[in-house]
Amino acid sequence: MRRFVTLTLLTIVSSLSFAQETIKTSIIEPFNIDSKYLSGIDIPKLKLDDHPEREYFQKRLYRGSELSVFILSSETASNEINDFPIDEFVYYINGRADIKTLDSKTITFYGGDYLCVPKGFSGNWTNNGGNKYHLELSVITNQRADSSKKSNAKKPFLLDRGLLSGMELTESEPGKYKNWLYKGVELDIWTESESPEKREILDNPREQLIHILLGQLIIQAKGGEPHTYMKGDFFVLPKGFTGSWESKGQNQLRTLLVGAK
Known about the structure:
By secondary structure, the chain is mainly beta. The protein has 2 domains: 35-161, Jelly Rolls; 166-260, Jelly Rolls (Sandwich). The protein is 12% helix and 48% strand. The chain has 3 helices and 22 strands. It has a 7-stranded antiparallel beta sheet, with no helix packed on it. The protein is globular, with a radius of gyration of 22 Å.
């Protein structure tokens, strides 16, 4: 009889533990982009089939329902690009990118630049290693758009530095500002600014990479732990997130956002 009671109690305890674990794992938390990867640390080395001699490093940092985030690094190398098949957001961290377009114009990007590579671009792209390696953060969508669709933008371009610096923002409602940087075939890129506030988010409808340009943000999923983000941090707010959003700052929280169409 005692053995039966013990087994029954163990079954109940195990069931409760499983239920608690299920509840815990069902909480949708923001995903932090680890700063060590943005510093070029612990990125796995890969062998490229087309260029086996090239020193190349890559890691997928995040794959969600709509977006994927990668960290990429390589020695100085050039690639011919014909009809780039995707929209891509790039935060160029180290080195220099030299692009030659089909009309023989040169575009140059440096470490610290935020840029967009539009779907349909053709040209030559050279990543020049800073000291030895270049380093970049890349965001793309998981779903491909119709191959016949091309972006209105024909060349890679630098995101508007004025808007990223908080200049000449467009007020969308009292105390809030929103400016579009790119409306592409697969990706949208924009900035948002707000006066410090606390609000609730219910079932976030769109997965977003968020980069803090200025201020502080505290995100806490319902039933989860708080996550604090400061200027320079990157994180993903997943689709379906429910919880609190608290912004702090000297007058404004400013963010750069990337989302799928």
